[in-house]
Specification:
This protein is an alpha/beta fold. Helices cover 43% and strands 24% of the residues.
């Protein structure tokens, strides 16, 4: 079984989704199916039944996927990480060398990656290029639109940890 890294927050979010799908969605869909059967017992022609069954299959597939991801997750407490070297859990401030645009990206596990929220997968090309580098380094990333160069302006860690590290 291949383990993969995940932040504690990402793990908790997947657990919450799993609980929601098991406790709420599963029973809601069973009730929806029962109501559809009560309305029309000819299941082959019952579109509400067919739709509810399809939704139930999707929910069950997602439950299985979540259970698998949670079983294989290696939770890393990023609040205990520190230093100037980019590694899993780091929030990296980058400057696009072509446009001067600033980006802040956190390197997280694949299941919790969300580019819109600034969270990139540890397996993404940009994360692979950043890992092991330090503040001030320039990295080149092969992107679909061609190579992009970024300068690492800052390597940060969770705020709670920053405060703990600064205490005597």
């Amino acid at each position: 079984m291949n383990k993969f890294p995940m932040t504690a927050a990402g793990h908790a979010a997947l657990e919450d989704e799993l609980k929601q799908r098991i406790r709420v969605e599963r029973s809601r869909l069973v009730q929806r199916i029962q109501e559809a059967i009560a309305d029309d017992s000819n299941l082959a022609e019952n579109s509400e039944y067919q739709a509810a069954k399809a939704e139930q299959e999707i929910n069950e597939a997602r439950i299985a996927e979540l259970e698998d991801k949670l079983a294989r997750a290696e939770v890393i407490d990023v609040s205990k990480l520190f230093g100037d070297t980019v590694k899993f859990g780091a929030a990296v401030t980058l400057i696009d060398e072509d446009t001067g645009e600033k980006k802040v990206l956190q390197i997280v596990g694949e299941p919790e990656a969300d580019v819109k929220k600034g969270k990139i997968s540890v397996t993404s090309p940009i994360a692979r290029a950043l890992i092991g580098k330090t503040k001030g380094a320039t990295v080149e990333v092969e992107a679909p639109g061609g190579a992009k160069a970024y300068k690492i302006r800052q390597v940060g860690w969770p705020e709670d940890h920053q405060r703990n590290r600064e205490r005597p």
